[in-house]
TrEMBL record:
Residues 2-216 form the ABC transporter domain. It comes from the Bacteria. This is ABC transporter. Signal peptide: none annotated. Keywords: ATP-binding, Cell inner membrane, Cell membrane, Membrane, Nucleotide-binding, Translocase, Transport. GO terms for molecular function: ATP binding; ATP hydrolysis activity. InterPro entries: AAA+_ATPase (IPR003593), ABC_SmlMolc_Importer (IPR050093), ABC_transporter-like_ATP-bd (IPR003439), ABC_transporter-like_CS (IPR017871), P-loop_NTPase (IPR027417).
Amino acid sequence: MLECRDLIFHYDRHDPGETPDFHFDFRLAPGECLSVEGPSGAGKSTLLGLLAGFLEPASGTLVWQHQDLLALPPWERGITTVFQEHNLFDQLPVWLNVGLGLAPDMRLSREQRYRVREGLAEVGLEGLHDRLPAELSGGQRQRVALLRALLRGSKILLLDEPFSGLDETTRDGLWALVRRQKAAGAAVLLVSHDRDDIEALADRRCRLQAGRLLPVS
Ligand SMILES: Nc1ncnc2c1ncn2[C@@H]1O[C@H](COP(=O)(O)OP(=O)(O)OP(=O)(O)O)[C@@H](O)[C@H]1O
């Protein structure tokens, strides 16, 4: 269980703005997907940054399976985040960008290479193995980033509008990959405004308003 209890955060601001103080309090079970909606500026990236460890809360607790995540740096939290920007390595070909999810030292075993190949076919990128990210379309880069994140097999997945702008077939393939991760026990937090994505994946929905998560029925 991911337990986020009274996680308080505020940006240091000198100008009188409209940024609220954030107060997050929710639970997310293994295998469950919680969707988060909210207008621009509501704090969705702030929430993801706090969970992933890029922002430090003023107080509160964040625990996964009895482990205190706040005591750990981002890279030790076992959390994979797919942001809107694709975060690919420009100088590495597609297959190696994906392979980094399985072997961070880039030394892929034969079996790992097979899984990369299989994954690329599943998301409709067969034939593009050796391309560089700059030689792909935006949607293709998105698929590479998502596939890498999903192959990593993290138990906590943070997805920030990962399916926007993709055609239906590709999106269905990626939904299937996320469902597989859920079935394997991953807890998924999905930031999305897309009704189809939410209906396809979310078990519970909430909305971010005035710095808090409110349930949506
Ligand atoms: N570094 C910062 N310093 C001060 N205020 C910030 C900072 N980053 C974000 N904010 C403010 O915090 C609020 C939440 O921003 P955040 O980026 O989390 O929103 P969001 O819901 O992800 O928006 P979007 O959908 O546009 O990406 C906004 O009012 C924003 O102006």
